[in-house]
Amino acid sequence: MTLTYRIAKPMALCALLLAACGEAEVSSPAAAPLGSVGEAGAAIRVLDGRVRPMADGVSGTAGYLRITSDQDDAVISARSPLFKAVEVHEMKEADGVMRMRPVPRLPLPAGETVSLEPEGTHLMLIGADESLREGDSVPVTLTFESGQSLTLTLPVEEGR
């Protein structure tokens, strides 16, 4: 699924430019979920997903999204046919150095939105055979502690 953002000129364009400089936030119109699984009262929804394009000569990249669950759950694994491994990683500063480590279980508290984003918790996609460019898409399957699985198609695009 491709996400489309419409910008009303000129004020929204100014807001977008400020956001790119880290000076303001731009919210998208009510985005449709990239995917959801489960029934009412037990649904898991994923919004605003994307995968960062890959630099030349690099076989890995990062993925970002937002997940909301109606009941307590957790992401326990992720996979993609385009990568040898997909892991949930977190970045934390320790002794003045940013460190990244795998997270075996990503808690999803009921009713809260968990964001996977740059410089924080994110999907680490490792070992691609081919480089991904803007406009490509990546199938990713998330498996949850509840036993449910959700396959998403994440667009490859620069940060927004």
TrEMBL record:
Keywords: Signal
Signal peptide boundaries: 1-24
Keyword Signal attributed: yes
Entry-linked InterPro entries: LpqE-like, Lxx211020-like, PCuAC_sf
Keyword Signal: yes
Superkingdom in the source lineage: Bacteria
Record PANTHER family: BLR7088 PROTEIN (PTHR36302), COPPER CHAPERONE PCU(A)C (PTHR36302:SF1)
Protein name as annotated: Copper chaperone PCu(A)C
Native source species: Parvularcula dongshanensis
